[in-house]
Amino acid sequence: MVRRIVTFPAEVLTRPTERVVEIDENVKRIVKDMFDTMYHAEGVGLAANQIGLSLSIMVIDTTPKEDAPNVKLVLINPEVLEAEGRVRFREGCLSFPGLTVEVERFERVRVRALDERGEDFEKTLEGFPAVVFQHEFDHLKGITFLDRLSGWRKRLALEKYRKLQREGART
Ligand SMILES: [Zn+2]
């Protein structure tokens, strides 16, 4: 089921999500809805708080991006084990419709999480999938890509976003 995507500055996007205690039918339903919602919005990653649920769950599918490795993952209670290298990437966010900002991220991350069956796994992500992971991982911590900017860059991005919202509200 496609759910409504929460947009900034909703409070649920600005506080850390809760760890998932048990992977039950409800969590499996949420994961399925997150994929439905992400594909419907033509996104490549989604965090549970973006559909209003303060839970440590993210989904990623980079398959639609042609020049990137095809990585499709469910990550529940994810952790970063190692991170290295730096890349700059222009990112969009389904919770900031129309806005893109250039953010610096790690080039490679080794992550650990549970999948939707409750199995523990580790994986190394590199390049675009690593960037998507870090963007969603920030969401789970209550951080948005605006928080990765400083000073005037953050202020400009925020002004641009408010302008986009006003224009969107008029049409
Ligand atoms: Zn986002």
From TrEMBL:
It comes from Aquifex aeolicus. Binds 1 Fe(2+) ion. This is Peptide deformylase. It holds the Pfam family Pep_deformylase. Fe cation binds at residues 93, 135, 139. Keywords: Hydrolase, Iron, Metal-binding, Protein biosynthesis. Its cofactor is Fe(2+). The keyword Protein biosynthesis applies. It is an enzyme of class 3 (hydrolase). Removes the formyl group from the N-terminal Met of newly synthesized proteins. Requires at least a dipeptide for an efficient rate of reaction. N-terminal L-methionine is a prerequisite for activity but the enzyme has broad specificity at other positions. SUPFAM superfamilies: Peptide deformylase. The keyword Metal-binding applies. Its EC number is 3.5.1.88. Belongs to the polypeptide deformylase family. The active site is at 136. It catalyses: N-terminal N-formyl-L-methionyl-[peptide] + H2O = N-terminal L-methionyl-[peptide] + formate. GO terms for biological process: translation. GO terms for molecular function: metal ion binding; peptide deformylase activity.
